[in-house]
């Protein structure tokens, strides 16, 4: 991790800092706040989307720890928002080892705060681009922290819709590196619940705010999200809107699906 000065490019909005703003954080700048406020105008429920995604990360991590997973690779980790993945995993299993990977300069500036861990476990950080998974897998920080001959859970929360290029190949590269018994957990934005191009509160209008500000984003359908798991055994209930994934006994109106507009799933390599 570099100790030199970091150019945070505070004059242009960044998806991670906008996400931080939606969550009520303070690690954002005027350009991020301006873009986020425009996004709120186009899709007022975006704060619900962001909070529900954090809830799903915690829910998925607890599930994976319950399956005996003790190694986690969280790619596109974002700005620290407690509880972070390592805190959730190590609360349940103190010996858990977690590697974070991101290439956002403000995340890099906060990385040291993330590296606090339990005495039994370990936490590390890689400055790497999700579009180039080989660089993540080859990083000394990963090799020093995780044993890839043993199961690892890869977490890709609200990330792949921001990654350019062949994201299916990105996921396949990661999966091929993992031992049997490993897992993939992910969430992904969708416009499946938009009611049409003229929908005043449609997710597509929110995503256009990002695109207009130079942040590429690509929503996917349920079938397109399911394609990420073709080489895996999907955990029941499969690809589902994230607030409905194994939330038995909790009733949600169908209008909430549109507010969330994120699919989630967990798959196991067998």
Would you write up a description of this structure?
The chain has one domain (15-268): Rossmann fold. The protein contains eleven helices and eight strands. The protein has helices spanning 15-22, 30-42, 46-66, 85-92, 105-114, 133-137, 140-145, 167-176, 203-212, 222-226, 255-260; strands at 71-75, 97-102, 122-127, 153-157, 183-189, 233-234, 240-241, 262-268. Strands 1, 2, 3, 4, 5, 6, 7 and 8 form an eight-stranded mixed beta sheet that branches. α4 (85-92) links the parallel β1 (71-75) and β2 (97-102). The longest helix has 21 residues, at 46-66. It starts with 14 loop residues before the first helix and ends with a strand.
What topology does this entry show?
Layout: H1 15-22, H2 30-42, H3 46-66, E1 71-75, H4 85-92, E2 97-102, H5 105-114, E3 122-127, H6 133-137, H7 140-145, E4 153-157, H8 167-176, E5 183-189, H9 203-212, H10 222-226, E6 233-234, E7 240-241, H11 255-260, E8 262-268
Parallel strand pairs: 1-2, 1-4, 2-3, 4-5
Antiparallel strand pairs: 5-8, 6-8, 7-8
């Amino acid at each position: 991790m570099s100790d030199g000065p970091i150019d945070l490019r505070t004059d242009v909005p960044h998806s991670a800092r906008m996400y931080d703003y939606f969550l009520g954080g303070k690690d954002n700048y005027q350009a991020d706040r301006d873009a986020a406020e425009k996004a709120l105008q186009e899709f007022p429920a975006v704060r619900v989307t962001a909070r529900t995604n954090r809830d799903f990360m915690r829910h998925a991590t607890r599930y994976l720890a319950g399956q005996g997973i003790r190694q986690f690779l969280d790619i596109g980790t974002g700005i620290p928002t407690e509880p972070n993945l390592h805190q959730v995993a190590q609360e349940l299993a103190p010996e858990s080892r977690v590697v974070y990977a991101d290439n956002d300069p403000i995340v890099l500036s906060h990385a040291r705060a993330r590296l606090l861990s339990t005495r039994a476990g370990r936490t590390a950080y890689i400055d790497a681009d999700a579009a180039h998974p080989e660089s993540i897998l080859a990083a000394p920080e990963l090799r020093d922290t995780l044993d890839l001959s043993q199961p690892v859970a890869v977490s890709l929360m609200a990330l792949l819709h921001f990654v350019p290029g062949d994201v299916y190949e990105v996921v396949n590269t990661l999966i091929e590196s993992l031992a049997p018994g490993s897992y993939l957990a992910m969430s992904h934005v969708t416009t499946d619940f938009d009611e049409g191009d003229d929908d005043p509160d449609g997710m597509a209008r929110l995503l256009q705010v990002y695109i207009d500000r130079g942040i590429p984003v690509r929503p996917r359908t349920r079938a397109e999200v399911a394609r990420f798991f073709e080489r895996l055994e999907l955990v029941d209930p499969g690809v589902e809107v994230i607030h409905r994934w194994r939330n038995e006994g909790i009733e949600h109106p169908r209008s909430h699906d549109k507010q969330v507009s994120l699919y989630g799933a967990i798959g196991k390599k067998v």
